[in-house]
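# step 3/5: fold
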Amino acid sequence: MWLKVVHKSHLSISRSSVVVCVAGLFIGFFTWVLFYGHAFLFRDAAHFYYPLFNLIQDEWTAGRIPLWNTYENSGTPLLGNPTSSVFYPFKLIFFLPFTFASNYKIYILFHVLLAVTNTYVMVRTRGASVIAAGAAGISYGFSAVILFQHANVVFLCGACWIPLALLFTDQTLRERKRISLLGIGIVLALQVMSGDPQTAYLCSLLALLYLIYLKWRPRQPSTDPLPGRHFWNSLQTLVLSVILAVLLSAVQILPSLEFSQRSSRVTYHEPRNVFELSRDLMETGKLNTKGLVGSGARTPHQIYEFSTGPWRWLELLWPNINGRQFPLNARWIQSLHDETTIWTPSLYMGLFPLLLVLTTWKLRNKEAWQTWLRWILVFGLAGSLGRFGVVWLVRRALQPDFLGIEGQADSIGNEVGGLYWLMTVLLPGFVSFRYPSKLLVFTAIGISGLTAIAWDELLSQKTRSLSRILWIVFIVSAIAAGSVLIGKDTLLAHF
């Protein structure tokens, strides 16, 4: 009995510590918004989402269902715009008895906390300790790639549901909990209804890949691999969960599908994927593959815009190594010709989570859950590269000095051979999405989930020493800083 009391007391202290840490970070990050009247009005938030949501709320307040926008292009469907999120349940926040500006801030802040909470629930349910789960929630919810989505709130909403999508998928496929089927369907529907159908699409794709992995992974004595019968049963379960998601979000999907047929995203001059290629082949009798291997910039909606160059991965370790974008733009990395438009100003998630993951890093593991998280991490990094595909890598290997070099009008695009290019070419409907950097949220949840696992393994001394990695980082950082200080004048003259 005494041990139980001590255990409950320890849990209570641990939970209190997590709450205090989250509250402290929340106040620290959002001080200007909470206490000084500042608002989230950077980039699309100012000229798109804020007025869009305001119009929708005005329609509800006037007693009308927000179906039509009379202020754009002589009138356009509101519900037909998937980012409008008219029927997203948590839009009820806008009915709070405050000004619209205040409710808009609450809406964003609520989803940041929801990202923290859902990540905590995900790893805690998978067996992590309270403190480890808190660390995971903090590293995800307060990571740069999540926080900066205040500028694109629908992608923040979609990202905050990813942890539960992964949790319910694991419970459905590995533990065969049928009730989790409902969880998958509801979470995918919430992502679609929130205005982020791409994240729901990718979560479904990852679930299918996880099922295939569980089917073919080597048998382990401590695990229960899927025999053929269970594989097909699980596949049917996944299909049912997707059908459920479609039914729950049909009120958003159907108008969006109809209106999207008028969008420039569905028009093309040359086939961009195998589906358009087959359609073009049947209509013209000619095989035109230029659009599949040509530059993504030819498409009207710029599929590969906001790609993340591999040099930016250093920001996971050193947050501002490539320079700060604001309040004064000092991003020296923009002098590289290959640097593209920036989706998030940094990729930083905290040094400790990254180093914890490195202490236990290996792509294959006896535990399916850990392996899946590692591959999700890699999936996000590889997918976010976008136009920096295999062709780009080969060109830069042959022409390494690409500082200031003008781009070449080649018949084969740089994106060819990359993961995002493969998905665009092979997956149905994926060509209608854009911005590869949005996939970085999957890297973030992969790192956060693995952080909790590594934390508990470190405390139980089941992993390699963290101090060794800390020393390596310290030495490399010191050498890099010293080199910059010594060669400062030369570097400034070069740039």
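# step 4/5: annotate
The longest strand covers residues 68-69.
# step 5/5: archive (pending)
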